[in-house]
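Q: What would this chain look like folded?
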Amino acid sequence: MVNFSVLPSVVLVRVLAVLILLTLRLSAAAQAPAWQSAQTVAVAIAAAPGGSSAVQATAVDAAGNVYLAGYFTNTVVLGTTTLTSLGSYDIFVAKFSPISNQFVWAQRAGGTGGDLAFALAVSGTSVYIAGNIHSPTVNFGSTTIASPGSTSSGFVAKLEEAGNTGNFIWGQPIGSTNDVTVKTLAASGTSVYVAGGFAGTTASFGAITLTNFDTSGSYSEDGFVAKLTDAGSTSSFVWAQQVGGVRSDRANALAVSGGSVYVGGGFDSLTASFGAITLNNTPSSVALFGDVFVAKLLDAGSTSSFVWAKRAGGLGGKALPHWR
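A: My prediction, written as C-alpha cells:
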C-alpha cells in the first residue's frame, strides 16, 4: 500500500524532454545511422503551492505525439490546461504535440482518496492507462467504477484520442481482499495486457479469480498477467495468469509481439510457479534476497499458457525495484 505521508508536499516541477528526430539516414546496412539534426523541447509540468506532481509513464503514437500519465495533488498545469484534484492524489493523462510544442489536451480521473497511474500504452487512437486506486469510487470522465478492494484496487482505463480532444470511454477495476497494483501495460490491436501484483486472499479480474499461493494467512504478494479485449465502448477480461510462490513475488514489465507475451519481474519465494514451470531461488536453502525472472506466455485468444521461464541472480540482492 502506498504511504502518502512520505510523498513530497512541496512544489515539484517535472520537465518533459522531447527529442524530435527530423531526419535519419542510413548510409549502409552495416554502418551506424547518421543523425542529421535534432530539436529539444522542454515543457514544465508545474504543481500549485502545497501540491506535487509526478510523471510515471510516457508513450508515443505513430504520428510522433507524446502521451504522459501520472498523478498530482492540489492542481497541476499542463500548458494552458489546469487540472484540480478531488482527493489527496488524482490521476492525469495528457497529449503533447512536438510540432506545436504545446500540450493538446489533458484529463484527470480520481475520487476522494489517493489514486495513481503507473502505466500507459497507445494503440491507434486508443490510449490506455493503469495503476491503483484508494478511493471507494473513481470517476473516469462520465464512467464511475467502484473499488472492490478493502485497501487498494488496480484499474485499467481507456481514452479515445480525437486529435484536439481525449475522452475517457471505459474503466475496469481489479479487486482483492488486500492491496493490488497494476505496474505495467501493453496493447496490441484490441488486446490489452496488464501485469502487477496482489497481496490478498484472491484477486478478481471480472469473472476470473486468482487465489494467493500463500495460505498461511499473511498473504504475501503474488504476480499476475491478465488480458482484456477492447470492444470499443466496453471491455472484458479474457484470461489471467498467476506467478510466484509463498513469499513476495511480482511482475514489473510487459512486452507483446504477435501472440507472444513476455513478462519480467522478481520473486522472493524459494520456488516460483509459472503454470507447470518452476523456478528455484538462489540460494534455495536461504533465499534472503529475491531473484529476477523473465517468462513467455502464448496468447491463444481466449486462453494462454506459459511456454518458458528463466531466472537470474546470485547470493546477494538483485537490483529489482519493489512493485509499489
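The chain has a mean pLDDT of 83.
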